[in-house]
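Good morning C.,

I know you're traveling, so I'll keep this short. The sequence:
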Amino acid sequence: MPDKMSDETLDPKASSLAEEQSEEPKLENVRIVLVNTSDCRNIGSAARAMKTMGLSQLILVDPKEMPNGQAQAMAAGATDVLAGAKVVGTLEEAINDCGLVVGTSARSRTLPWPMLEPRGCGEKLIDEVSNFPVALVFGRESSGLTNEELQLCHFHVQIPANPEYSSLNLAMAVQTLSYEVRTSYLIAQEKAKEKAADDEYPIVEETERLYQHFEDALLATGFIVPSHPGLVMTKLRRLFNRARPDVKEVKMLRGMLASVERAAKK
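The tokens, ready to paste straight into the viewer:
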């Protein structure tokens, strides 16, 4: 059964998530908040949808029916997400330490509000999730979120379903938006890996090997006169110190030089 959320859990001063800042996005900082859900089976299905996308933080706001055996059956292999769900009385309690909150809206409201598409919603949540907890809020099965609840959100997101049949159940909506969150998370991870690889610079020993390889290859082609190699190599050193090639670029240059040496020996 879900546990009641303690005040300490939602206290931003006590939260380790708020204290530990990191540039790497963390899916455990993404909260799925279900407001006043009427059927506990929908909670179980939502938990399953979350786990398939790597999300685990589920918060239930004043559910009409607490999760039971039926919810566990619908959760299938995601009973851990269901068991770890936190229960609070109000939406404010669920989001008071979040830096970004996006509310789902199935229809246009009389009060204009900044809107996001599902893809943009995933991107924005992942852009900010390394700084603080973020929340994606879903309303009641029959009526969604109230205007007052939507006004607690920084942005609204609407799934552009078929206007002739736009009926999405709660679990479908959670699955769709959780997928967009995961897609953006994977893209951010890949970019972080690429950046880390680009920023990996060779140690002095490796650059010295590169310079020696340059000298050997240029001697083999006759570009450097054996009796006066110094000037060319000094200028090459200055060039590469200015460009500061990373590890991958050094490997590429040495591959090119090896090819030049093989051609020179033919």
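Safe travels,
E.
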